[in-house]
Each structure stands twice: as structure tokens, then as C-alpha cells.
Write a structure and sequence with these properties.
The protein has four helices and no strands. With 128 residues, it is mostly helical.
Length: 128
């Protein structure tokens, strides 16, 4: 096994660990599928890594869309609801809940963008 192959395996292992940790941090989302884990473990070629980069780009886009949706919900709660902040049901905290979710999704999006960038780098180093 050459140094480049060892380095690629090490990076792929780190990416898999990062994906698993990102899944844990993202809340109630589904864990990585066995298929995705297999794709990461077996990624060797440029095409393999480019496909993973595309997948992570899509995940980042979905997280950005979720963040945007929650920002809109926060505004809706702030503007459209006559909420009594003393209400024991917590109606006054609804905008802040949405804003927290939006910030979390922004962070998740950034992590997916990092994974995509790492796979693009691996694709440059990989054999066709």
C-alpha cells in the first residue's frame, strides 16, 4: 500500500467519522445509510469522490433551505401572532425556537460544504 493510498484511506475514515458526528449533532435526522457508509468506505476513484461531493452539496443545500424556512417561521411568529409572553404554553418563545433551528441548520450546511470540499480534494488526488 503506497503513501497516497494510506493518506486517502485516513482522510476517508476521518470524513466518515465527521459525517457520523454531524448526524449526531443535527438532531432527529436519520443516521447515515448503510449505502452511504459503503460508498465512503469504497471511494477510490475521482468519480467516486466527485459523486460524494455532489451528495454533500445536496445535503448542504437542503440544510440551507431548512434554515431559511425556519427564519420565515420565526418572522411569522413575530409578526402574525398575538402571543402573550406570559402564556404558560410558551408562545412567546416560538420565534427563538425557530431561530435556534435555523442557526443549527446553518452549521450543518457548513459541515456538509466542508465534506464536499474534502471529497473534491480527494478527487483531484485519486486515479480516474
Amino acid at each position: 500500500m503506497n503513501v497516497n493510498s494510506k493518506s486517502s484511506r485516513r482522510i476517508a475514515s476521518a470524513l466518515l467519522l465527521g459525517l457520523m458526528l454531524a448526524g449526531c449533532a443535527s438532531g432527529p435526522s436519520a443516521p447515515p445509510s448503510p449505502e452511504l457508509s459503503q460508498r465512503i468506505e469504497s471511494a477510490r476513484t475521482r468519480g467516486d469522490h466527485e459523486a460524494l461531493a455532489t451528495y454533500y452539496d445536496q445535503q448542504a443545500s437542503a440544510a440551507r433551505a431548512t434554515a431559511s424556512d425556519h427564519r420565515k417561521l420565526a418572522k411569522t411568529y413575530q409578526q402574525g401572532m398575538a402571543v402573550d409572553p406570559k402564556d404558560p404554553r410558551g408562545g412567546g418563545t416560538l420565534p427563538s425556537h425557530c431561530n435556534v433551528i435555523a442557526r443549527n441548520q446553518d452549521g450543518i450546511s457548513a459541515e456538509y460544504e466542508g465534506l464536499a470540499a474534502a471529497h473534491r480534494q480527494l478527487a483531484k488526488q485519486a486515479q480516474p
